[in-house]
Amino acid sequence: MTTRAALLVLADGRFPAGGHAHSGGAEPAVKAGRIRDARDLEEFCLGRLHTTGLTSAALAAAAAQGLDPLALDEAADARTPSPALRNAARRLGRQLMRAARATWPSPELAALAEARPRGAHQPVVLGLTARSAGLEPADAAHCVVYETVSGPATAVVRLLSLDPFEASAVLARLAPALDRVAGQAAEAARHGIDALPAASAPLLDISAEAHAAWPVRLFAS
Amino acid sequence: MHLDHTHTGPAAVSADSARPDGTRRALRIGLGGPVGSGKTATVAALCRALRDRIAIAVVTNDIYTREDAAFLLRNAVLPPERIQAVETGACPHTAIRDDISANLEAVEDLEDSVGPLDLILVESGGDNLTATFSKGLVDAQVFVIDVAGGDDIPRKGGPGVTTADLLVVNKTDLAPYVGSDLGRMARDAAAQRGDLPVVFTSLTGADGVAPVADWVRERLADWTA
Hints:
Chain A is an all-alpha fold. Chain A has helices at residues 4-11, 26-31, 38-65, 69-78, 83-103, 107-115, 122-132, 137-160, 164-189, 202-212.
């Protein structure tokens, strides 16, 4: 049975799970002058993909595979040193949970919602959502890596008035790298929780902490 | 309105009139409208007019600051724990219509932390004439325009002006200074809206918010009936 269309529904930027209010670290990077044009955006996305993207995608693939979501939630905490990013990940997880239970309800989603009423980490919820939708671990990983780069790209279109065609071209150029990282993440998940990657991006952690304290900002993270 | 709305499906659906514990949730009224038309001032005046008899909380959707929430806090219209700000990622209409998850979270958190509540006002960030609230988020919506924004706005219509459950034309005290014809605005609004109500307000006068407050009381009476 093919489930490709369900994957499109889940990966669609219009899926109402709260992502539109988050820039994936792009807002502080724009403010600091690290993203000024499409080329910078591509480098930023590539860095994010190979760090938090890989880590999050493996968590999602592991959840989709059926590993214990509560243990994965703890693994996600251990891989997220920034309190601001933990907070954002749990808020997004809670928002995704609402959408997931309306679209692909399942006892596993209900159990996680009950165990983590304030929200589990978003990649864990996403993996479980994919599982409820009948998708494969690799599909969940693909969803996460795509979000990892599409979030900042959309945000930069708004923040810099970047040409939207250029932003989409960046995403298209990154597509082969997205496939590779999703594959690595799904492969890592096959070896259990202790083998999950823990790649991190210290600059994203630091700038997320600073951004959370800005009095004026367009995005929640 | 979703007065008798019930779901037998998953509990995550947002428009349920009951909370998870089976009690009736608060009535949710959205206030939208263009930037500067007086949404926050209307919310503040409504809180002052209603708070003695009705348990109220407010969710603000600031576009890029916490200004609206800060205004309500500064004016002490409600205790701080009854005011929550939602961040909208540069897209205020998305947060009240296309992806309402952050706002739903805010209204549910308010009911959990300071409830039971009778009424939650959800104020949108200032937006354009097409911005409307999802029925999954609010039970009724108010669209606030003002006379200084041009007396042709009712004629131009758009989803907010045409379909809101209540249209408020604010700042009537400014009409003589900006050359706005209130009679024309009333006629155009009636032509666009049919039987849907329109009220004219001036919040600078004593009890200027009374027509809106009366309408809210009627909605509450319907909700709890």
